[in-house]
Amino acid sequence: MMTKQNNVVTPNLIATVVLPSATTMPESMAMLGGLEGSKVNAWIDSMRASSPTRTILYSAKGKQIVVFLDYDGTLSPIVADPDKAYMTRKMRGTLKDIARHFPTAIVTGRCRDKVINFVKLAELYYAASHGMDIMGPTKNQTAAEKTNKAVLFQPASQFLPMIDEVYKILLEKTKSVSGAKVENNKFCLSVHFRCVDEKSWAPLAEKVRLVLNEYPKLKLTQGRKVLEIRPTIKWDKGKALEFLMESLGYENSNDVFPIYIGDDRTDEDAFKVLRRREQGVGIL
Q1: Which residue in the list 45, 70, 113, 269 is annotated as catalytic?
Q2: Are 246 and 182 found together in one domain?
Q3: Among 147, 196, 240, 266, which one has the highest count of C-beta atoms within 10 angstroms of its own C-beta?
Q4: What pTM does this model have?
Protein backbone atom coordinates (compact mmCIF):
# COMPACT_ATOMS: atom_id res chain seq x y z
CA MET A 1 0.00 0.00 0.00
CA MET A 2 1.32 3.41 -0.90
CA THR A 3 1.25 6.22 1.65
CA LYS A 4 0.50 9.90 1.38
CA GLN A 5 3.19 12.53 1.66
CA ASN A 6 2.24 15.42 3.92
CA ASN A 7 3.77 18.26 1.93
CA VAL A 8 1.00 20.69 1.08
CA VAL A 9 1.49 23.03 -1.85
CA THR A 10 3.05 26.44 -1.33
CA PRO A 11 3.78 28.92 -4.15
CA ASN A 12 7.52 28.15 -4.11
CA LEU A 13 6.93 24.39 -4.38
CA ILE A 14 4.46 24.92 -7.20
CA ALA A 15 7.06 27.00 -9.00
CA THR A 16 9.50 24.08 -8.86
CA VAL A 17 7.03 21.91 -10.75
CA VAL A 18 5.34 24.18 -13.25
CA LEU A 19 7.71 27.02 -14.07
CA PRO A 20 10.35 26.84 -16.83
CA SER A 21 14.07 26.76 -16.34
CA ALA A 22 16.58 28.99 -18.06
CA THR A 23 18.51 25.95 -19.23
CA THR A 24 17.72 23.82 -22.25
CA MET A 25 15.63 20.74 -21.43
CA PRO A 26 13.33 18.41 -23.35
CA GLU A 27 10.28 20.27 -24.54
CA SER A 28 7.64 19.21 -22.00
CA MET A 29 10.04 18.87 -19.07
CA ALA A 30 11.04 22.52 -19.35
CA MET A 31 8.13 22.98 -16.94
CA LEU A 32 10.14 21.21 -14.23
CA GLY A 33 13.37 23.15 -14.34
CA GLY A 34 15.63 23.97 -11.41
CA LEU A 35 15.25 27.47 -9.95
CA GLU A 36 18.76 28.84 -9.58
CA GLY A 37 20.31 32.26 -10.03
CA SER A 38 19.02 35.80 -10.36
CA LYS A 39 18.05 35.42 -14.03
CA VAL A 40 15.90 32.42 -13.27
CA ASN A 41 14.33 34.18 -10.28
CA ALA A 42 13.45 37.12 -12.49
CA TRP A 43 11.93 34.74 -15.01
CA ILE A 44 9.92 33.06 -12.27
CA ASP A 45 8.55 36.43 -11.20
CA SER A 46 7.48 37.17 -14.76
CA MET A 47 5.95 33.71 -15.15
CA ARG A 48 4.02 34.09 -11.91
CA ALA A 49 2.36 37.07 -13.53
CA SER A 50 1.30 35.05 -16.57
CA SER A 51 -2.31 33.95 -16.76
CA PRO A 52 -1.81 30.12 -17.10
CA THR A 53 0.69 29.99 -14.24
CA ARG A 54 -1.49 32.16 -12.01
CA THR A 55 -4.35 29.75 -12.65
CA ILE A 56 -2.24 26.74 -11.64
CA LEU A 57 -0.90 28.53 -8.56
CA TYR A 58 -4.42 29.46 -7.48
CA SER A 59 -5.92 26.03 -8.18
CA ALA A 60 -3.15 24.08 -6.41
CA LYS A 61 -2.68 26.32 -3.36
CA GLY A 62 -3.03 24.39 -0.12
CA LYS A 63 -3.45 21.05 -1.90
CA GLN A 64 -1.27 17.97 -2.22
CA ILE A 65 0.42 17.84 -5.61
CA VAL A 66 0.95 14.43 -7.20
CA VAL A 67 3.26 14.45 -10.22
CA PHE A 68 2.97 12.08 -13.19
CA LEU A 69 5.61 12.16 -15.93
CA ASP A 70 6.08 10.43 -19.25
CA TYR A 71 9.69 9.43 -19.95
CA ASP A 72 10.64 9.72 -23.63
CA GLY A 73 10.44 13.32 -24.82
CA THR A 74 9.63 14.54 -21.32
CA LEU A 75 12.44 13.44 -19.02
CA SER A 76 14.76 12.54 -21.89
CA PRO A 77 15.14 13.79 -25.45
CA ILE A 78 13.72 11.78 -28.34
CA VAL A 79 16.70 9.97 -29.88
CA ALA A 80 17.25 7.76 -32.90
CA ASP A 81 18.19 4.73 -30.78
CA PRO A 82 15.57 4.11 -28.05
CA ASP A 83 18.16 2.21 -26.02
CA LYS A 84 20.14 5.46 -25.66
CA ALA A 85 17.37 7.75 -24.39
CA TYR A 86 19.39 8.82 -21.35
CA MET A 87 18.26 11.58 -19.04
CA THR A 88 20.82 14.18 -17.99
CA ARG A 89 22.33 14.38 -14.53
CA LYS A 90 20.68 17.76 -14.06
CA MET A 91 17.30 16.30 -14.97
CA ARG A 92 17.80 13.46 -12.50
CA GLY A 93 18.63 15.96 -9.77
CA THR A 94 15.52 17.99 -10.57
CA LEU A 95 13.38 14.85 -10.51
CA LYS A 96 14.89 13.72 -7.21
CA ASP A 97 14.12 17.11 -5.67
CA ILE A 98 10.51 17.03 -6.91
CA ALA A 99 10.05 13.54 -5.43
CA ARG A 100 11.21 14.83 -2.03
CA HIS A 101 8.19 17.16 -1.95
CA PHE A 102 5.50 15.28 -3.89
CA PRO A 103 4.55 11.69 -4.72
CA THR A 104 6.04 11.31 -8.21
CA ALA A 105 5.38 8.63 -10.82
CA ILE A 106 6.92 7.81 -14.20
CA VAL A 107 4.15 6.63 -16.55
CA THR A 108 5.70 5.18 -19.69
CA GLY A 109 5.35 2.66 -22.48
CA ARG A 110 8.84 1.36 -21.70
CA CYS A 111 9.42 -1.84 -19.78
CA ARG A 112 9.93 -1.27 -16.08
CA ASP A 113 13.49 -2.60 -15.84
CA LYS A 114 14.66 -0.38 -18.68
CA VAL A 115 13.11 2.85 -17.42
CA ILE A 116 14.37 2.22 -13.88
CA ASN A 117 17.85 1.73 -15.35
CA PHE A 118 17.49 5.09 -17.14
CA VAL A 119 16.10 7.02 -14.17
CA LYS A 120 18.01 5.36 -11.30
CA LEU A 121 15.74 6.74 -8.56
CA ALA A 122 14.22 4.27 -6.10
CA GLU A 123 11.94 6.84 -4.43
CA LEU A 124 9.60 7.07 -7.43
CA TYR A 125 6.50 5.15 -8.51
CA TYR A 126 6.84 3.45 -11.89
CA ALA A 127 3.90 2.64 -14.15
CA ALA A 128 5.62 0.94 -17.08
CA SER A 129 4.28 -0.84 -20.19
CA HIS A 130 1.60 1.86 -20.58
CA GLY A 131 0.62 1.41 -16.95
CA MET A 132 0.38 -2.38 -17.05
CA ASP A 133 3.36 -2.87 -14.72
CA ILE A 134 3.06 -0.68 -11.63
CA MET A 135 5.61 -0.59 -8.81
CA GLY A 136 5.96 1.62 -5.77
CA PRO A 137 9.12 3.15 -4.30
CA THR A 138 11.79 0.70 -3.16
CA LYS A 139 14.10 3.13 -1.38
CA ASN A 140 15.21 1.86 2.07
CA GLN A 141 13.72 -1.60 1.44
CA THR A 142 15.63 -4.85 1.83
CA ALA A 143 16.27 -7.02 -1.22
CA ALA A 144 13.52 -9.44 -0.15
CA GLU A 145 11.03 -6.60 0.33
CA LYS A 146 11.86 -5.20 -3.10
CA THR A 147 11.17 -8.58 -4.68
CA ASN A 148 8.04 -9.48 -2.75
CA LYS A 149 6.27 -6.18 -2.16
CA ALA A 150 7.37 -3.73 -4.81
CA VAL A 151 5.08 -4.91 -7.61
CA LEU A 152 1.67 -3.38 -7.03
CA PHE A 153 -0.31 -4.30 -10.11
CA GLN A 154 0.14 -6.21 -13.37
CA PRO A 155 -3.28 -6.48 -15.08
CA ALA A 156 -1.97 -8.10 -18.28
CA SER A 157 0.13 -10.96 -16.89
CA GLN A 158 -1.82 -13.59 -18.85
CA PHE A 159 -0.65 -11.97 -22.11
CA LEU A 160 3.08 -12.46 -21.48
CA PRO A 161 3.45 -15.68 -23.55
CA MET A 162 1.55 -14.10 -26.45
CA ILE A 163 3.63 -10.91 -26.29
CA ASP A 164 6.86 -12.92 -26.37
CA GLU A 165 5.60 -14.98 -29.31
CA VAL A 166 4.62 -11.92 -31.35
CA TYR A 167 7.92 -10.25 -30.48
CA LYS A 168 9.88 -13.10 -32.06
CA ILE A 169 7.66 -13.08 -35.16
CA LEU A 170 8.03 -9.32 -35.61
CA LEU A 171 11.80 -9.54 -35.28
CA GLU A 172 11.80 -11.94 -38.22
CA LYS A 173 9.20 -10.07 -40.31
CA THR A 174 10.82 -6.64 -39.94
CA LYS A 175 14.50 -7.53 -40.24
CA SER A 176 14.45 -6.65 -43.95
CA VAL A 177 13.30 -3.07 -43.19
CA SER A 178 16.40 -0.97 -42.69
CA GLY A 179 16.23 1.11 -39.51
CA ALA A 180 13.25 -0.69 -37.97
CA LYS A 181 13.63 -1.73 -34.35
CA VAL A 182 11.29 -3.97 -32.36
CA GLU A 183 11.38 -3.36 -28.60
CA ASN A 184 9.96 -5.78 -26.06
CA ASN A 185 8.43 -3.77 -23.22
CA LYS A 186 7.27 -6.90 -21.38
CA PHE A 187 3.50 -6.29 -21.46
CA CYS A 188 3.55 -4.51 -24.82
CA LEU A 189 5.73 -4.13 -27.89
CA SER A 190 7.04 -1.13 -29.80
CA VAL A 191 8.08 -1.07 -33.46
CA HIS A 192 10.21 2.03 -33.91
CA PHE A 193 10.45 3.55 -37.39
CA ARG A 194 12.20 6.85 -36.65
CA CYS A 195 15.26 5.61 -38.56
CA VAL A 196 13.25 4.03 -41.40
CA ASP A 197 13.07 5.70 -44.81
CA GLU A 198 9.68 7.38 -45.14
CA LYS A 199 8.88 5.33 -48.25
CA SER A 200 9.04 2.20 -46.10
CA TRP A 201 6.71 3.39 -43.33
CA ALA A 202 3.51 2.08 -44.90
CA PRO A 203 4.98 -1.31 -45.92
CA LEU A 204 6.38 -1.72 -42.40
CA ALA A 205 3.00 -0.93 -40.84
CA GLU A 206 1.37 -3.44 -43.16
CA LYS A 207 3.83 -6.16 -42.08
CA VAL A 208 2.90 -5.47 -38.46
CA ARG A 209 -0.85 -5.48 -39.22
CA LEU A 210 -0.62 -8.81 -41.02
CA VAL A 211 1.05 -10.38 -37.99
CA LEU A 212 -1.56 -8.96 -35.63
CA ASN A 213 -4.40 -10.28 -37.78
CA GLU A 214 -3.60 -13.64 -36.20
CA TYR A 215 -3.76 -12.19 -32.69
CA PRO A 216 -7.15 -10.54 -32.11
CA LYS A 217 -6.42 -10.08 -28.41
CA LEU A 218 -3.72 -7.56 -29.29
CA LYS A 219 -4.32 -4.06 -30.65
CA LEU A 220 -2.18 -1.68 -32.70
CA THR A 221 -1.85 2.04 -32.04
CA GLN A 222 0.61 4.67 -33.24
CA GLY A 223 2.77 7.10 -31.30
CA ARG A 224 5.59 9.41 -32.34
CA LYS A 225 7.22 7.37 -35.10
CA VAL A 226 6.46 4.17 -33.22
CA LEU A 227 3.82 1.47 -33.59
CA GLU A 228 2.54 0.24 -30.22
CA ILE A 229 1.16 -3.29 -29.72
CA ARG A 230 -0.83 -3.82 -26.54
CA PRO A 231 -3.36 -6.27 -25.10
CA THR A 232 -6.98 -5.34 -25.77
CA ILE A 233 -7.78 -5.04 -22.06
CA LYS A 234 -9.29 -1.76 -20.88
CA TRP A 235 -6.10 -0.42 -19.37
CA ASP A 236 -3.98 2.58 -20.34
CA LYS A 237 -2.06 5.47 -18.79
CA GLY A 238 -5.32 7.01 -17.61
CA LYS A 239 -6.25 3.84 -15.74
CA ALA A 240 -2.76 3.77 -14.24
CA LEU A 241 -3.19 7.35 -13.03
CA GLU A 242 -6.51 6.41 -11.39
CA PHE A 243 -4.95 3.33 -9.78
CA LEU A 244 -2.07 5.34 -8.32
CA MET A 245 -4.37 8.10 -7.05
CA GLU A 246 -6.57 5.50 -5.35
CA SER A 247 -3.56 3.69 -3.87
CA LEU A 248 -2.26 6.98 -2.47
CA GLY A 249 -5.62 7.58 -0.80
CA TYR A 250 -6.78 10.39 -3.09
CA GLU A 251 -9.57 8.61 -4.99
CA ASN A 252 -12.33 10.90 -3.72
CA SER A 253 -10.25 13.72 -2.30
CA ASN A 254 -10.76 17.39 -3.15
CA ASP A 255 -7.46 18.28 -1.53
CA VAL A 256 -5.20 16.90 -4.25
CA PHE A 257 -3.83 18.48 -7.43
CA PRO A 258 -2.47 15.96 -9.97
CA ILE A 259 -0.04 17.29 -12.58
CA TYR A 260 0.59 15.08 -15.62
CA ILE A 261 3.29 16.00 -18.14
CA GLY A 262 3.61 14.02 -21.36
CA ASP A 263 4.14 14.51 -25.06
CA ASP A 264 2.64 11.48 -26.84
CA ARG A 265 -0.79 10.29 -27.94
CA THR A 266 -0.84 7.65 -25.21
CA ASP A 267 -0.68 10.43 -22.60
CA GLU A 268 -4.03 11.74 -23.81
CA ASP A 269 -5.75 8.93 -21.86
CA ALA A 270 -4.37 10.44 -18.65
CA PHE A 271 -5.43 13.94 -19.71
CA LYS A 272 -8.99 12.65 -20.23
CA VAL A 273 -9.03 11.28 -16.68
CA LEU A 274 -7.98 14.66 -15.26
CA ARG A 275 -10.68 16.42 -17.26
CA ARG A 276 -13.29 13.95 -16.05
CA ARG A 277 -12.17 14.38 -12.43
CA GLU A 278 -12.09 18.16 -12.94
CA GLN A 279 -8.83 18.13 -11.02
CA GLY A 280 -5.24 19.04 -11.72
CA VAL A 281 -3.67 19.85 -15.05
CA GLY A 282 -2.29 18.00 -18.06
CA ILE A 283 0.70 19.59 -19.78
CA LEU A 284 1.56 18.52 -23.31
Answers
A1: 70
A2: no
A3: 240
A4: 0.81
